[in-house]
Write a structure and sequence with these properties.
alpha+beta; hypothetical protein PF0899 fold; 7-stranded mixed beta sheet; 6-stranded mixed beta sheet; 13 helices; 17 strands; globular
Length: about 450
């Protein structure tokens, strides 16, 4: 197995080989254009050979780049997963001291506090919170957690944990399509109407003593109306039983819960923010907020038609005087894969940046299954949007409830948490999504690829 430095050296050599082959293709193509008829077969063979050499070198470089990425990720995971040796069974190895100013520690506090509350409730108070914190996370971390003004909301068989819920929301910008696009995020207590500028006075150069031409501002309204989004996940209480006997399992449980809730929240939030129907209980997705003039039908699936359609989409924004500060493509994985494979008559990728940088015409791609591929049969859509023109409204405080003694419904059936030895985590958040101007998005419909 090659080491990381060896992979990097091999990758550099493959890139240089691809560059050299590309130069050979350019020269051979030029020779072909000027070759006499009798020499054209030989010149054509030279172009073909150079193209094959380039494809081979490019494929090798891509494979090595993938191998390097895997090797670097494995090395990073090895460092993160390193644990103290020799901890006797039933005990916990010492936790490395963590600086109290660490931002990562601060972010993890609500989740760790939640786990402590769950364990205390699960063991009917047999576990002492302060002792549990020190045993599980070490003295320094325990003291820092205790110093934070986080509330415990134990009531009966349920725990209400608003502090922990916020850690879920803060992590969504790395998982959702819409929150990744650097939108404006506002916290609103309920429904709110904010003004939207629809027209403004024009300006121009003029002499020192001349009066500017008067104009009028035009305003519309943006109604931010956060909708309720409940998220639930069920976890086996067997995890709690194991954690009660050995604190090491708690840290794993902490990450497990956070990951599951963030994934469920991300999928459901994107579904509403992108293509929500705009009913009483569902947000209007940005797809359906697009100005009518910015929604165009696909002109076809030939190389020229595809390229013309795609280039017209950012132009639709700039024509409406939308300054594209951070443009993004939103499309299905099927469409992204197809576009990455489109090649010209010489076998070259039309959009090589898709594989190399995950960009198309200079703008990042957000591919998501929340863009369906079964519209009017097997068609899909492509969207292009200026991310900062999106406004996300986070509603009132998010609430997290953990229960080990109630029941939950799945379809038409009810299940007892006690009988199934399970724990239910229920979270509710409120949010809405609006475009600052409806010309800030372009939509291509009837896409067959």
């Amino acid at each position: 197995m090659l080491t990381i430095p060896e992979i990097r050296q091999a990758l550099a050599a493959a890139v240089e080989a691809a560059k050299a082959a590309n130069g050979t293709i350019t020269k051979a193509s030029a020779d072909l254009r000027t070759a006499a008829d009798a020499d054209k077969p030989t010149a054509t063979a030279a172009v073909t050979a150079a193209t094959k050499a380039y494809d081979a070198a490019h494929a090798q470089a891509r494979d090595l780049a993938d191998e390097l990425k895997r090797a670097e990720e494995s090395e990073a995971l090895s460092v993160k997963s390193a644990t103290p040796r020799g901890a006797p069974e039933g005990t916990l190895g010492a936790v490395p001291a963590t600086a109290k100013s660490s931002q990562e520690l601060i972010k993890s506090i609500p989740a760790r506090k939640m786990i402590v509350d769950i364990m205390v409730a699960h063991t009917k108070g047999a576990i002492e919170p302060d002792k549990w914190l020190r045993t599980t996370y070490g003295d320094d971390t325990a003291d820092f957690i205790k110093s934070q003004q986080l509330s415990s909301y134990a009531t009966g068989g349920a725990l209400s944990l608003p502090d922990f819920a916020q850690t879920i929301i803060e992590g969504l910008e790395h998982m959702t399509v819409v929150r990744k696009m650097n939108p404006q995020v506002l916290s609103v207590p309920g429904s709110m109407i904010i003004p939207r500028e629809t027209s403004a006075p024009s300006g121009g150069w003029m002499g020192e003593n001349n009066n500017p031409t008067p104009g009028t501002f035009g305003f519309g309204d943006i109604k931010l109306d956060p909708k309720r989004l409940p998220i639930e996940t069920v976890i086996s209480r067997r995890l709690l039983d194991v954690a009660a006997r050995g604190g090491a399992a708690v840290r794993n449980l902490e990450g497990y819960i956070v990951k599951r809730l963030r994934e469920k929240t991300a999928v459901n939030e994107d579904a509403g923010f992108l293509r929500g129907a705009g009913t009483e209980f569902v947000p209007t997705g940005i797809r359906f907020q697009a100005a009518a003039g910015n929604v165009k039908a696909s002109s076809g699936s030939t190389q020229a038609q595809i390229d013309a359609d795609l280039r017209a989409m950012p132009l639709g924004l700039t024509t409406a005087d939308i300054m594209i500060t951070e443009g993004y493509w939103i499309m299905s994985p099927r469409t992204k894969t197809f576009l990455a494979g489109v090649r010209n008559t010489n076998g070259f990728q039309i959009y090589p940046s898709i594989d190399e940088k995950n960009t198309l015409l200079g703008y990042p791609i957000m591919d998501t299954n929340q863009v369906p591929t079964n519209l009017s049969g097997t068609n899909t859509e492509i969207m292009f949007v200026n991310g900062p023109s999106i406004i996300i409204a986070n509603g009132s405080d998010v609430e997290m409830i953990v229960s080990t003694e109630g029941s939950y419904q799945s379809g038409n059936q009810h299940f007892s948490l006690i009988q199934r030895n399970e724990m239910l985590i229920h979270m509710e958040m409120y949010s809405d999504c609006k475009l600052e101007r409806n010309q800030a998005i372009s939509v291509l419909t009837g896409v067959s690829y």
